[in-house]
Amino acid sequence: MLYFAYGSNLHLFQMKKRCKDSVFLKKIKLTDFKLTFRSKYRAADIEPKKNSIVPGALFEISKSDEKKLDVYEDFPHLYSKHYFYYYGKKVMTYTMVNKSPFRYPTERYLNVVRRGYKDCGLDFKYLKKALIAI
């Protein structure tokens, strides 16, 4: 199955440790969504926003990888699954259930996300924009 990562799972070494069968395919952009950080965990989330973009990574994952991600993402309590189509193929990602207000991420978490942006060749301007609570 195809999985879209936009937060800490962009960190390729961490993703490979978590999901041994995962294969990074390429970087893609999810349109009409924006990146934010929220909850007591100060973790990444996406929410609908017209004319906005969330850069991320497209992975091929196995069923067992999906189960591991479900545990990591605390599905279905913290995150629910969101599906979209990319060139006719169904893609799964996670989005937070409770859309609490913006919370600036911890330095440790943010460093993991920054490393992921570097690993996947993503444009840091989107991350910088998400860190400014509007």
Description:
The protein is α+β, with helices and mostly antiparallel strands and 134 residues long. It has a single domain (2-127), classed as Gamma-glutamyl cyclotransferase-like (Hypothetical upf0131 protein ytfp). It has four helices and five strands. It has helices at 12-18, 63-72, 107-120, 124-130; strands at residues 2-5, 23-38, 43-60, 79-86, 89-96. The chain has a five-stranded mixed sheet. A hairpin with a 2-residue loop joins strand 4 (79-86) and strand 5. The radius of gyration is 14 Å and the shape is globular.
Name the features:
single chain, 134 residues, alpha+beta, Hypothetical upf0131 protein ytfp, 5-stranded mixed sheet, 4 helices, 5 strands, 40% strand, globular
Secondary structure: elements and pairs:
Elements: E1 2-5, H1 12-18, E2 23-38, E3 43-60, H2 63-72, E4 79-86, E5 89-96, H3 107-120, H4 124-130
Parallel strand pairs: 1-5
Antiparallel strand pairs: 1-3, 2-3, 4-5
Q: Got a strand count?
A: 5
Helix content: 25-40%
The unreliable regions are none
Radius of gyration over alpha carbons?
Answer: 14 Å
- The H/E string reads EHEEHEEHH
CATH class: Alpha Beta
**What's the CATH H-level homologous superfamily?**
Gamma-glutamyl cyclotransferase-like
User: How much of the polypeptide forms β-strand, as a percent range?
Assistant: 35-45%
Tally of individual domains: 1
Stated plainly, the CATH topology is called Hypothetical upf0131 protein ytfp
Could you tell me the mean pLDDT? 97
Strand order of the largest sheet: 2-3-1-5-4
Principal-axes shape call: globular
CATH second-level architecture: Roll
Structural class from helices and strands?
alpha+beta
By DSSP (H or I, 4+ residues per run), the number of helices equals 4
Distance between the termini: 34 Å
Largest sheet: 5 strands, mixed
